[in-house]
Write a structure and sequence with these properties.
Elements: H1 5-23, H2 48-51, H3 56-60, E1 68-69, E2 73-74, E3 80-84, E4 87-95, E5 100-103, E6 110-113, E7 116-126, E8 132-133, E9 140-147, E10 153-162, H4 167-173, E11 184-190, E12 203-209, E13 217-224, E14 228-230, H5 232-239, E15 260-261
Parallel strand pairs: 1-8, 2-15, 10-13, 10-14
Antiparallel strand pairs: 3-6, 4-5, 4-11, 5-7, 6-7, 7-9, 9-10, 12-13, 12-15
Length: about 270
């Protein structure tokens, strides 16, 4: 049976249309090679665990941070030696889209707890505070991330309250970095001036985690009761850097953890 040229053309056209219909939309882009690089935001924090296998602990970890400190157990606690939280020069601040972070040169600052030395790697800011005391948050919170040579982590939380200006924080606030912009030179910071005075260093301590993805557990948290000051106008300038003016995680279930304290009036 012979097929006319017109019929052959019609059949060829029909075949191409059917093939195109079978192809469908292009495949989605492949996931990042490092699953810990999957994008996240504070606006979708209830879904963090669904975004990546690396974020598993965000949803099912039993020792997550931050927490609401309600009924801590009063106990004498070992003092933290901050004598090597001194002046560190040539620092820069950067905005990673989630916080303003200051990285510390290796070995430039450290704390001692018991017989263990922990080296300060970086500190960053959250607004409002992530930890709460009996349901009450402060204007902001600083987190100091300290790591031992054996990769044990002590995270130190310091509350910031609305008050007077802070000369050390002013060095950071004089030009807050923008997301996507270059790091900002802030010069020398006296780390000790970002802590409550020694006489006010009573604290809450508990086993917790990183407060953002991947929410790694195994952190020892030390959250100081007393706060340092910052003007409300500066708090507002920081909040304006982030969507909704918030870059903090909601408090997590305590589960069976015990919070220890040497605060006489928590």
């Amino acid at each position: 049976m012979q097929i006319s040229k017109l019929t052959r053309f019609a059949l060829l056209s029909l075949g191409l249309l059917l093939a195109a219909a079978c192809v469908g939309p292009p495949p989605p882009p492949p996931p990042p090679v490092n699953c810990c690089e999957v994008k996240w935001s504070y606006e979708n924090q209830e879904r963090w665990a669904e975004l990546s296998p690396c974020y598993f602990d965000c949803g099912t970890g039993g020792e997550q941070s931050p927490i609401n400190i309600v009924n801590p157990k009063l106990q004498t606690l070992p003092a933290v030696d901050f004598s090597h939280y001194g002046k560190v020069a040539d620092l820069k601040s950067r905005n990673d889209g989630h916080t303003v972070r200051i990285d510390i040169p290796k070995g430039a600052a450290s704390l001692k707890l018991g017989d263990m030395i922990y080296y300060l790697q970086q500190f960053h800011f959250h607004a409002p505070s992530e930890h709460k005391i009996r349901g009450n948050a402060r204007a902001m919170e600083i987190h100091f991330v300290n790591v031992s040579p054996g990769d044990r982590v002590v995270a130190v939380g310091v509350f910031i309250k609305d008050g007077t200006s802070n000369p050390e924080l002013a060095k950071i606030w004089q030009k807050l970095p923008q997301y996507g912009g270059d790091p900002v030179d802030i010069g020398e910071i006296d780390l000790g001036a970002l802590l409550p005075p020694p006489r006010d260093r009573t604290s809450f301590r508990y086993a917790g985690s990183l407060t953002n993805p991947p929410c790694n557990q195994g952190f020892q948290w030390i959250v100081y009761h007393d706060a340092i000051d910052l003007k409300q106008a500066d708090v507002d300038r920081f909040k304006a850097l982030f969507p909704g003016g918030i870059n903090s995680r909601r408090v997590q279930d305590l589960n069976d953890r015990v919070v220890l304290t040497d605060v006489q009036r928590p």
